[in-house]
Each structure stands twice: as structure tokens, then as C-alpha cells.
Amino acid sequence: MISRVSSRSPELLEAGLTRRSEANWLAIELSGAWITETVAAREQDMTDLVNSQDIRSSQHVVLDLSDVEALDTAGAWVVERTANGLRDRGFQVEVAGAEGARKELLDVVAKTSQPEAVPPGMRGLGGLVERLGRGTVELGRDARDLLSFLGLCIVATGRSLLHPKRLRIVSLVNQIDQVGFRALPIVGLLAFLIGVVVSYQGAGQLARFGAQIFTVNLLGVSVLREMGILITAIIVAGRSGSAFTAQIGTMKVNQEVDAMRTIGLDPVEILVLPRILALVLVLPLLTVYANFMALLGGAVMAMAQLDIDPNQFISQLHDAVSVGSFWVGIIKAPVFAFVIALVGCFEGLRVGGDAESVGRQTTRAVVEAIFLVIVLDAFFSIFFTLIGV
Amino acid sequence: MSETAISVRGLETRFGTNVVHENLDLDVYREEVLGLVGGSGTGKSVLLNTIVGLRQPDAGHIEVLGQDMATGDAKTRAALRRRWGVLFQDGALFSSLTVLQNIEVPLRFHTKISPALRQELAAVKLSLAGLPPDAGPKYPGELSGGMRKRAGLARALALDPDILFLDEPTAGLDPIGAASFDSLIGDLRASLGLTVVMVTHDLDSLYAICDRVAVLVDRRVKVGTIEELVREPDPWIREYFGGPRGRQAGQAHDRT
User: Fold this and answer.
1) Who's near A331: CB < 8 A, 6+ residues apart?
2) Quick one: pLDDT at residue A266?
3) Contacts of residue A352 in chain B, CB cutoff 8 Å?
């Protein structure tokens, strides 16, 4: 019923346009195929026509479609917008030569509505201030939400302590396996390499003063107090914090979290607590392991580069660090673990309805967790300096 | 009506040892609405995916608009893809783009139309699909299921296709929404001259807009008008059209 060429091959077809001007009318004759593939070539001509200055006001404009072989909505819309443009300039416009299905198509297209132009947002300085304001308000809101989630978790923890039977042991063990045991290879390898690097760089600098042996002190103090825990926390934030967000977020998208609530289960108790608890238990252990691996890496490097034998290394290390240094590092681990798991679960529960927000929240979780870990580490440093540890 | 838009010959589809289609023949004529029905797991969506080239057939030929998908070169295949639109079950809109940007995607990649005209055309399609203009700047996540389907339809119509493939267009819509979607498809077919292939479970849709129905039974299709299919001896088809829901849909259709 529609007059459309049966085997449309865009290479062979194009949209034709001729213009015939008489005393009191102007005929725009369209020919060929006016379809999606071909109208682009004629778009400029039609725009020029609308703006053309040589149409006399007495002229009656006729858009003649009788020679058009194929017309689709794109073509029909171009005809329609041209006619509208000319009408807006005060001309009498008539669309001729369209019958039956084509007339119907033109009518359908004419009835569609164009959106009103959206006023553009503020630009320049105003826009900057606006964005800054919005960002600040949002940041405040995020901080408040995180704080309220922290409260929720503490209440849930308290409840679990009162009723230890409600704690989900299977889930906890599973999480310990996921975030702890399976993280051993990557944490170990990276800690070992960090030890190698610190030892190598330290030896290079200290050799200038003939104090190579103090490389061991440098290694011991930096690894035990800072490097071991920081590296472990950052790896775990990237590896497990993101996994928490992705797991909980996917469940949120699938409405599993909603299903839990309707059954009367508390998602914080079921999903969040085992993860937080697992990470708080595991991160100190991972840190001890990372410390050991970093010292091992440093020792290997020291032996290779400085000709220090293992006994010497151990006795030097013994003099350099105290049990206090070890505790200064380890004491931070549960705090960092708590923050990483809290942020990961919080961002997971904030996932909205669509799959895209899982990715967005996961990125946020990792960035926020690493940010908070480093900020807290700075606070710890200040605190330890003040109390003179 | 006699001109063939899609012809499937001897199609075979296997998943491991599970044979889904065997020696399946199907013809779809131009400007008809063909409904594709079948029990769960009979491979309706698989057949649709195979026709649009998302899945390679294990055997057999598929010709769409006279071109063989398997033998054609990349250019013919690309040209063919421009001539059909696919509406997936939940719209399958790109979630990082607004509705209007979604509709513009095919236009942007397949034509040289200027951005201004492209935006206007996208608004035309949005309106054709029965969405209000203020839905255009929204993101898919902000729309209801029914609106997402309409937006998906608008994107499928972006290049003015000859053939429209619909995968369960009325699933998950309320009866009023489903009926208006049916009449929308009917109207578009009439004004744009579309050939429509729709996978559906909705008996009302079948009665309302389908010219013919293809039923997937025993790894093949039985095609006919509903009147013809009702007389089929096959037990599944009898149950489908003669069961309580089938009878109700038929009676409802007869009354109108």
C-alpha cells in the first residue's frame, strides 16, 4: 500500500529537487527517493530554501511530491519542516501530489510533536559555582547517609552479640575464604616486591654515607609501621571492597534485597555483618603475612646487594624495631577493614534499579575506601606522634 | 502480499545434543504481521535471534529481503541490518544515553544527517511510538516498563526499517497498555508499510493484529491464519487455541 521502491538500494537512488518560479507561484518539485539514506544530501538545499530571500511575498509555494518514488518518515519530516519553515515566514504553502498512504504518512509525521527547547544550564563562573554548590550538598548528604549506615551496622552488630545464634556462620566462613585466603597470593607477591623496592632504594641512598646496614632499619620501620598495612588495605579495598559492592548491588538490581525484606530478613544482618566481620578478622592476619613477605623481599635484596648474611639481618632488625612498631601497624588493620567493608556494603545497597549503577557504585566504593584509608592513616600518624609512640 | 520478505529453509539449531529446530521452513510475506508462538523452550527467541544474525544457524539458509545472511559480504550484511529494526524484550536501551540519544544512535552511525535534523527525526520517532516529548531527555532507568518498550520501538524505527522484529512486545504490560501497544503496531504497519515478526505469548495480540501465526511444534513451524490453526490436529495447538484462555481471547475478538 505504501509507494516505496521494492528493492531499495541506496547507492542507486537519490533525492531530486528542482525549482520552477512563475509570476505568482513557486513550484518545488521533489523527485527520486526521499528516504533516510538520501535526505542528508538534500538537507542543506531545503534549509536554504526556507531561508531564501528571492521568494516574493506574493508567491504561492507548492511542494510537489508527484514525482517522488519513495518516501519514508525521514523524507516526510524534511518536507514537513520545510513547509512549516516557509509558513512561519508568512508564505502560503501547499504540499501537493501526495495521495493515499503518502498523505497518511505526511499527516502522521505532521501530528508528531517536537520537544520544547530546554534552556541550557548556566555556563562560565555561574555554572562553576552551581556545580560546586550541588557537589558540596551531595557530599554532605553522602556523609550523612554513610554515618546513618554506620549506626545501623553498629545496632545490628550489638544485636548479633546479644543473640550469637543469629550470626550466619556459614556465610562468615565463606567470606573469610573469599577475602582472606584467596587474597594470599596477590598480597604476598606485592608485599614481597615492595620490600625489594624499599630495600633497593634505601641501600642506594644510605650507601652514600656508608650506612648501608641501616637499610635494615629503614625497611623494618617503614614496613611494619606503614607499608605493610597500607599496601594490604589498598589491595583489599580494590579486591574485596569492590566485590562487596558488586555482589550486593547485583542483588539489589535483581530485587533480591527487596525479597529479603518482605520475607522479614534484615539485609544488614544477612549481607553486611558477615562481610564486615570477615574483613575485620582477616585484615590483621593478612597484614602480618604481608609484613613477613615484605621483610623477606627486603632481606633477599639486602643479602644480594649488601652482602649482609641472614644472621646479621635478623640481629640488625631486632635492634631496629620493637614489638611496638609491629603493634603500631597492626592496630590500624581492624579499623581500615571496618571502613573498607562498610563503604563497600554501603555503596552496594545504594545501587539503583539499573545495571549501570552497579559499575558506578563499585568505582565509588573503591575510590572512597582508599581515600578514607589514607586519611585515617594520616590521623593515626598524628595521633601516634602526639602520644610519642 | 505474495512477495516474500524472509524465507527460512531447512534451518537447524542445536545446543549440544539438544536439537531445537530441525528442517524448519518459514516464509514471511511483505507487509504482513506474523505472530510466532510456542511453548517455553521451543526456541521462539532463538529463531528470532537466528534470523537477525545474532546466532549462526547450524544448518540451512535464511534469506532476508532476497539476501542470504550467511553468504553475503560484510557490506551487504550491514546494508541489510539497516533495513530492519529489533525490539528486545525489555527495550534493551543503552542505559547511559537518554531516550532521544538512544533513538539517534542508528541514525548517527548509518546516515550523514546533520545533528539538528537527527534530533528532530528522533523526536518524530518518539512521537510515532506514542511517547510524550518530555520522555525524550529522560534516561531509561527513569521510565516505566511500558515506556521503555515504546522507547525501544522508537529506536527500532529510527532508520525506517522494512521489517520490524518484536520479542514479546506486550509481556509485562497491563491489559490497557498491551492493547494500545497492539494498536500502535497495527497503525505503524499501515502508515509505514512494515513487515512485522513478533514473538508473543499474548493471545489477544494474536487475534488483534496478526495476519498469520507460526506455531513452533516438534522443532518445526506450522503456519496459518488462526482459523486454519484451530483445525490443526496437533494436541499442543488444540490446547493453545482451544484452552480456556484461547477460547476467551477468541470470543473477545469475535465480539469486537
Assistant:
1) none
2) 86
3) 141
Of B112, B137, B159, the CB nearest to A40: B112
- pLDDT of A85 above 90: no
Q: Which three cell numbers stand for residue A354?
A: 539499573
Closest to B24 (Cα-Cα) out of B54, B64, B5, B51: B51
Per-residue pLDDT at A7 exceeds 60 = no
Instruction: For chain A, state the CA radius of gyration.
Output: 36
Q: What are phi and psi of A129, to 5 degrees?
A: -65, -40
- Kind plus residue range of the DSSP H or E element containing B60: strand B59-64
Share of chain B residues as helix, strand and coil, in percent rounded to the nearest 5: 45, 25, 30
Question: Using the beta-carbon criterion (under 8 Å), do B124 and A109 form an inter-chain contact?
Answer: yes
Question: In this predicted complex, what is the ipTM?
Answer: 0.78
Query: Measured between CB atoms, which of B136, B141, B157 is closest to A354?
Result: B141
Chain B CB contacts of A104 below 8 Å: 190-191
Question: Who contacts A42 (Cβ-Cβ below 8 Å, separation ≥6)?
Answer: A15, A17, A34, A78
A208-254 residue pLDDT tens = 888 888 889 999 999 999 999 999 999 999 999 999 999 999 999 88
d(CA A272, CA A313): 44
Query: Could you give the CA distance from residue A349 to residue B212 in angstroms, rounded to a whole number?
Result: 48
Domain boundaries along the sequence of chain A: 15-111, 141-387
Query: Would you say B44 and B15 are in contact if contact means Cβ atoms under 8 Å apart?
Result: no
Statement: residue A1 has pLDDT above 80? no
Interaxial angle between packed helices A355-387 and A242-253, expressed in degrees from 0 to 180 and rounded to the nearest 10: 150
Task: Please tell me the predicted confidence (pLDDT) of residue B2.
Answer: 59
Q: Give chain B positions within 8 Å (CB) of A43.
A: 113-114, 117
Q: Which of B66, B111, B190 sits opposite A36 (nearest CB)?
A: B111
State the angle between helix axes of A332-349 and A228-236 in degrees (0 to 180), rounded to the nearest 10. Answer: 20
Q: Please give the CATH number for the structural domain made up of A15-111.
A: 3.30.750.24
Q: Do A112 and B123 touch (CB under 8 A)?
A: yes
pLDDT-above-70 percentage for chain A: 95
Closest C-alpha among B232, B228, B226 to residue B246 = B226
Does residue B116 surpass a pLDDT of 60?
yes
Strands A15-21 and A25-34: antiparallel
C-alpha atoms less than 13 angstroms from C-alpha of A249 in its C-beta half-sphere: 26
Residues with Cβ within 8 Å of A221's Cβ and at least 6 positions away in sequence, in order, are A320, A321, A325
**A43-57, A157-171, B116-130: least confidently modelled range:** A43-57
Higher pLDDT, A151 or B15: A151
| pLDDT higher than 60, residue A284 | yes
Rounded to an integer, the average pLDDT of B165-190 is 85
> Cβ separation of A1 and B141 shorter than 8 Å?
no
CA B22 to chain centre: 22
- Report domain extents, chain B: 93-148
**Of A111, A96, A333, A79, nearest to A228 (Cα)?**
A333
Q: On the CB side of B27, how many CA atoms lie within 13 Å of its CA? A: 8
Alpha helices in B52-174 (DSSP H): 74-81, 99-110, 115-128, 145-156
Dihedral sign, Cα of residue A248, residue A251, residue A255, residue A258: negative
Single-letter residue type at A91: F
